[in-house]
Amino acid sequence: MKGKLRILCYGDSNTWGYISGSDHLRYNENERWTKLLQKQIGGGIEIIEEGLNSRTLFSDDNRPGKEGRNGWTYLKPCLDTHDKIDAIILMLGTNELKNTFNNSAKDIIEMLDKYVDFVKNYKSQIDKSTPQIIISGLPLISESAVYCKKGDKYKGASKKSKELNILCKNHFKNKILYIDNSDLQTGIDGVHMTKEAHKVLADKICKVIKEELKKN
To answer: How many CB atoms lie within 10 A of CB 194?
Structure first.
């Protein structure tokens, strides 16, 4: 590895660090996975946080105050902003499971494929290099939790999230780096990870970086 490795963490509220069951409170720098990863991996690698609450893969959130949540439209500007990026950790798809968007697990796989294809063809403005992509899988949604039940926001999402995890493991096997996170625990709202899960996720990603990315 030459020089400092720069890794972009592109995700939604679970990357932002939303505290389960809270009113938009955030895990601090000693709790959320992006900051824990930075501490573990050391100063030779820069971890860039790009988590946004309610961010989707492709769907537009039409609720007032939720403008700009479409992750696809911001992907290139984000990569250009932080250029040069050596790797992007993509952790998106949970919000696409909301009932209002009516997506199947297969629909979300197709969306992820478009992200993979885009990143593989993206060239740095600085040296024309291409970032590596790691897909960080999603925690399973607990539809029985109060937050999920509210307005049937995540109706059917428990089953879909399980199906999505299975499809991802098979679909991305031997293609790109994929991290299975079906074991990560969500808190009382059934969507956002617990503090302990943030630690587990940081450990997983740190291991992948040390074993895989540093080879290049």
So the answer is: 17
* CA distance linking residue 47 with residue 199, whole number of Å: 15
164 with 105: CB under 8 angstroms? yes
Categorise residue 28: left if φ over 0, alpha if ψ from -120 to 50, beta otherwise: beta
- For the chain, which ranges sit under pLDDT 70? 1-3, 146, 149-151, 214-216
Output the 3-class SS for 116-149: HHHHHHCCCCCCCCCCEEEEECCCCCCCCCHHHH
Write down the residue that tokens 């897909």 correspond to: 135
What is the pLDDT, as a whole number, of residue 39? Answer: 97
Q: How far is CA 37 from CA 25, 46, 97, 120, 181, in A?
A: 20, 10, 27, 24, 16
User: Which residue matches tokens 């900051």?
Assistant: 35
Residue 83's SS3 state is coil
